[in-house]
Every structure is written in structure tokens, then in C-alpha cells.
């Protein structure tokens, strides 16, 4: 149990640290005098891609959960009521 809790905590700390690091650094700044864009340090994580993948993961999990609950409800509807002793 401690191992699982430690792994989950480690993942959360890693993601949180990357988010904090990326939010503190801007991606690009415009130079008004020359009209060019000066690129600053790139972010460690592409958060737009993470958002899309997270949305796909949650939608897939929701779809699978709906399938499982529909199968359970259909199974209950087909079975006759069992007598209780």
C-alpha cells in the first residue's frame, strides 16, 4: 500500500513541478523595436496536447463505464428474481 501511495505521490509531484515550472516561464516575447519575436525558453510540456489526451482518456473511460453498467442492468433485467431464503 505504501508503494502504491508513493508512486501516485511521485507522479503528482512530477506533474505539478513541471506545471509550476512552465507557468513561470513565458514562451515568446515580441520585440517592439524590430517587430520580431524573441523566443524564450520552451516549456517542458506541451499542455495543449496533454489536455486533448486527457479529454480522450476520460471520454473513453466514461464510454467503457456506460457499457459495463448497461450490461449489468441488462443482465439484471433478464434474470428472474431469485427467491430469498
What features would you describe in this structure?
- The protein has 85 residues and is mainly alpha-helical.
- The chain has two domains: 1-44, no CATH class; 46-78.
- The protein has helices spanning 2-24, 47-78; strands spanning 28-31, 36-39.
- The protein has a two-stranded antiparallel ribbon.
- The longest helix has 32 residues, at 47-78.
- The model has no long low-confidence stretch (mean pLDDT 83).
Task: Give me a quick take on this structure.
The chain is mainly alpha-helical.
List keywords for this structure.
2 domains, two-stranded antiparallel sheet, mainly alpha, 85 residues
Itemize the secondary structure elements and their pairings.
Blueprint lengths: L1 H23 L3 E4 L4 E4 L7 H32 L7
Antiparallel strand pairs: 1-2
Tell me the domain tally. Answer: 2
Number of strands: 2
Query: With helices defined by DSSP (H or I, 4 residues minimum), what is the helix count?
Result: 2
Radius of gyration: 24 Å
Helical residues, percent: 55-70%
The largest sheet is: 2 strands, antiparallel
- The oligomeric state of the chains shown is single chain
What is the typical, i.e. mean, pLDDT? 83
In spatial order, strands of the major sheet run 1-2
Shape: elongated
